[in-house]
Amino acid sequence: MVGKSPAVVLLSGGLDSATVLALAAREGFAPYALSFRYGQRHLIELTAAEKVARAGGAVQHLVVDVDLGVFGGSALTSDDMAVPHHDDVAELDGDIPATYVPARNTVFLSLALAWAETLGSTDIFIGVNALDYSGYPDCRPEYIAAFQRMANLATKAGVEGDAVLQIHTPLIALSKADIIRVGTSLGVDYALTHSCYEPDARGTACRTCDSCLLRAKGFAEAGLSDPALAATAWGGGG
Amino acid sequence: MVGKSPAVVLLSGGLDSATVLALAAREGFAPYALSFRYGQRHLIELTAAEKVARAGGAVQHLVVDVDLGVFGGSALTSDDMAVPHHDDVAELDGDIPATYVPARNTVFLSLALAWAETLGSTDIFIGVNALDYSGYPDCRPEYIAAFQRMANLATKAGVEGDAVLQIHTPLIALSKADIIRVGTSLGVDYALTHSCYEPDARGTACRTCDSCLLRAKGFAEAGLSDPALAATAWGGGG
Questions:
Q1: Closest-CA residue of chain A to B113
Q2: Which own/partner contact pairs does B110-113 have at CB distance under 8 Å and 24+ positions apart?
């Protein structure tokens, strides 16, 4: 790793963050992948994250425990709220959905900041996307800019003025189809990724949650079939 | 609790946050106390936090697991680094000490933000202090202002524009002696609080870590004796 700067890459095991990992590596960083056990309904995405980290050449992959489930307030962490399902992607109305986890990106970026500071890294990568973004407030460019400003005041490096922390959001202006095209050109194996909010016990995607619908739309618009669906027993092809 | 707005109060079990809890209650908020099991060397402070929360009239006290120890980089979470000890408070030189936990306040405030959002609260209280503050970058007013700006872009309320989140830092301009005077006037029982970074197995304060020295200086300047020390078996009186 001589000469390579370390960068912390937030890795969910989904399609977006797998692409971000590949982009961080292409930019010449030594990627340190960070995932969370945060009280999500299923841990299939962490298994996916582990495979993606290995395939993507992460120097290290850390899974940190942070229990967001204790606060409730989201269909992704609370059994009291249902994950919404739709027949068609056109039904997604742009409102903030029940799957929004309060302050999740803020918590995840804060933990990435903690690791970056101990690694001596000034670079954090996150796969937020302002276009096909499911309506989450903490995916907007103005939010990311404000986080970066705060982060530069939060740390030793900021006080000493000898480093400037940067939050990289290489997907922010891309459509899902663009992301898939970019990742495919970089050799990302999307068969390893997992996007579904509510898979069955065998890990099979539901195809009707917001995340499945946006993923299917992306592959369709990119003119590609989804290798993760092709790999399932029931033979779906996206 | 009719008519009272909920506020999230970060509660470490130390002297400062116990005072903040009392101030939040005096301002008319219904306080929700939040503490963390974050990989700290000892859990005595969490026992203290529980007592302080009860005595201070917290509506609820939540202890959230978030493992900052996995990142290393601090004497408070890593056995590889020693907690510094000094003979005298004058030896504290203003540099960022080994007890600094990377991004700790950012992580804690982010989790407070998650709880505030699920509670429908727009108020978070934190006992940071820019005067007798041990040299931590994330205790400075400009850092807090930047966090508040970011937080207002991070949440549903920020998007919908119908609420403005405020980070309250009532101790920011106070000396340790001022804090103790204010808290004493509000009836805070400092015998319940714990400040020491490296107590012995019985929970007795070391009297020589930065936190013990700043606490002792505060009580001395306020012309009061420290009831937590008076309560120990060896009969110290501050």
A1: A103
A2: B110/A103, B110/A106, B110/A107, B110/A109, B110/A110, B111/A66, B111/A68, B111/A103, B111/A107, B111/B34, B111/B36, B111/B64, B111/B66, B112/B8, B112/B10, B112/B34, B113/A102, B113/A103, B113/A106, B113/B151, B113/B154, B113/B155, B113/B165
